[in-house]
Amino acid sequence: MATSLKLNIPTNAPRGSPAFTQALKACFALHAFQADQVQFCKSAGASVSLEAPKEGIEIVDINAIVRYLARIGGAPWISDDRAPDDAWIEWEEVVLRPRIRELNTVLDLAEKLLAKSGIAKSGSVTPAQIILFSTLYDTIATAPPSILDRHPQLKGWYYQTLESEWAIEGIQKAAALTTVSSLDSVSAKAVKTAPVAATKAPSKPVVIGTEADRKVQTGVQMKTYAPDEKILPRPGEKNILITSALPYVNNVPHLGNIIGSVLSGDVYSRYCKARNYNCLYVCGTDEYGTATETKAIEEGVTPRQLCDKYNALHRNVYDWFNIGFDHFGRTTTPEQTEIAQDIFLKLHKNGHLTEDSITQLYCEKHEGFLADRYVEGTCPKCQYDDARGDQCDKCGSLLDPMELINPRCKLDDSPPVVRPTKHIYIKLDELQPQEEEWFHKSVTEGNWSKNGKIITESWLKEGLQKRAITRDLFWGTPVPLEGYEKKVLYVWFDACIGYVSITATYTKDWEKWWKDPANVKLYQFMGKDNVPFHSVIFPSSQLGTKDNWTMVHHISTTEYLQYEGGKFSKSRNVGVFGNNAQDTGIPPDVWRFYLLSSRPETGDSQFIWRDFILKNNSELLARLGNFVNRLVKFVAAKYEGLVPDFADAAKDAAFDGFKADVNKLLKGYVDELEAVHIRAGTELLMQVAQRGNQFLQDNKLDNATFAAQPAKTAAVVGLGLNLIYLLSALCYPYMPATGESIARQLNAPVRTIPDTWELDLLPGHRIGKAEYLFSMIDPKKEEEWQSKYGGDKKVEEALKEEEKKKKADKKQKKKGASKAKAGPVEAVKDAAAALLPSAPAEQ
Q1: Roughly what angle, to the nearest 10 degrees, separates helices 290-299 and 303-320?
Q2: 168, 200, 491, 790: which one has the fewest Cβ atoms less than 10 Å from its Cβ?
Q3: Would you give the DSSP letter of residue 73?
Q4: pLDDT per residue over 705-717, tens digit each?
Q5: Which domains does the chain have, with CATH numbers?
Q6: Where does the signal peptide begin and end (predicted)?
Q7: What is the pLDDT of residues 528-563, one digit of tens each?
Q8: With b meaning 16 or more CB within 10 Å and e meaning fewer, what string describes 35-54?
Q9: 118: phi > 0 → left, psi -120 to 50 → alpha, else beta; which?
């Protein structure tokens, strides 16, 4: 039996801290195993340690100390330093290290552990019992008394253990040796009769990691703006203006909509801000046009009411996804009318507009000209039955309603007739030389996405033609010409002007962003179907005004995101839409990372539930989350939450290869993001996290190394913490909440993305409290979510059958309609008039 043992207990171990839990374990073990030859000593260190001078050992791992005291205390079932049931190992691995935040979840696991290990039924005290009880003690003692009611087996074991002599004496001894004083005078009887009240937490919360505790290099903090400060271009700085395709207001955005524009734009905006560029990101809902009118009729509301409803819905979805717009507006504003009409009038003044009489489809049943989206029919290019008058959703071709085969009125399904009307056209053919000259310069200097370049080149190669920019509608920007009082600007001409008007609703100094091309670079994000409007029509309109417009520098485009092998469809309840993502309970950052890591940049990509779960569990949780959690907890346990003195040891040439690897990956990350290669950034982010895991593994960061090689361990910890700080910045564009959590755990400001990795957390810096970044997703959820959101094979087959039935019903309806008597025209007119009170009579 060893003699002259010294047990060092940290005096600065407040209730709720890892050090206090360590002290409890040591005191419980000392009394449980009657190791009275051990001398208690107060210590200024950060953790419990046991010195055995005659044996020439010092034990610093608290669980090893518990097992050592059990052995020297003469426990008959202890043959070595490991308990035979080893339940403590499972507890440590299953509960303490994973990302579990919910107390009830922790208690559920503890109860299962009790049943599995047999701790509760054991007649003697085991190290596993002490470790489990110590870990739960602070949590349960400071929680409401009813917290254990849902866990009857655990409750019985906990209070039975609390009344044992070793627990009572251990609590009192730990309280006397540490900064906790509330239990110093508590008697054993008091503990037995009122265990919860006796272990009440201190009234003042423990503050871990304040700004006063920071020791961080200057100049690493990300620039912030005051709440009422407007972001404006600054002379001599890198001024970046970012827009993403305005989501149309008449629907709920699905995952494909989100990744195609607003989320991609958000990543680049956050990247620019993490580089301390002067950056403004604007977006808003596109609210004018035929689709809004038709949707309003379907829902029985006015177009304004419809826009108000869906604008709020879009805002809620984007807020949940943590899309960090600097301003999110809408196109139905006075600013939109003023700026759009100004552009129109300047084009007219400069001779780039022309009037022409055309034949247009007219519905005799409700007596109105049919704008493009009021007409449906068969696509002449791919034979798709449900093509719209402006575009085919299947092949993506832009169409004229007159081209449709077997056209029909969307409102009443009747066949339209052709009648003459007049419209205003923009003469794109005359503007093509200017457009081409600008395009070749911009696409080269801005390094556009490949499909953006190809689509624009295709339009220019075919030769631009004049295109109508007015429509026979009520809901839109009024045409500012005499004789056109009952017409509005066509939405594809009007919508891109929305970026300008939305900026104007943000700041009256909007021209500083939009009319200063020498100092501002414009980046635009969109799906490939929006390319021509941004690369041909809007730039041609800008050029035609002869104003000094800021024109697009870089266009970033995506292909289509498919859902489990098919298309998203709200009407068919197939796919995940913005509100559905919230319903799953999976945090926004996990959704963001998955979508961005599978961003359809060079071809269509698939949303697959199995991949989604695997990406969370094997990458986010296993690589990034475990790396951060392991190191932060190690520092809290071994260094009292302080960054050790690692500066000299970190200069050892043995670490040069690691530093070089990190800087190489960092350079790759910056290069890819500067080129707006967003998906590649996710790959490099995870490579940095994996290099950190490898670094800890190569250097064997554990208790043995901590005891045997303190200088090396300090260097590994110092380098590791600084790599985590770098990771917080690399995460921020993709997973902002995760980046902020890491910074919070390190008690450091949200930081910039540097060109070169430096050691910015200095020795003596106090870190904050550990947080779990990610949680495990049960693989069984795949089948549940597939069934709920229409992703499994049975649902796909059912949808195909439904599509066949729908086509058959349409054919039957047309056949029957041709034999039926025409209904009264007034009924349709009255319905339209009630919903669109300002509509022209002929509509």
Answers
A1: 100
A2: 200
A3: T
A4: 898 999 999 999 9
A5: 5-198 (1.20.1050.130), 588-745 (1.10.730.10)
A6: none
A7: 999 999 999 999 999 999 999 999 999 999 999 999
A8: beebeeeebebbbbbbbbee
A9: left
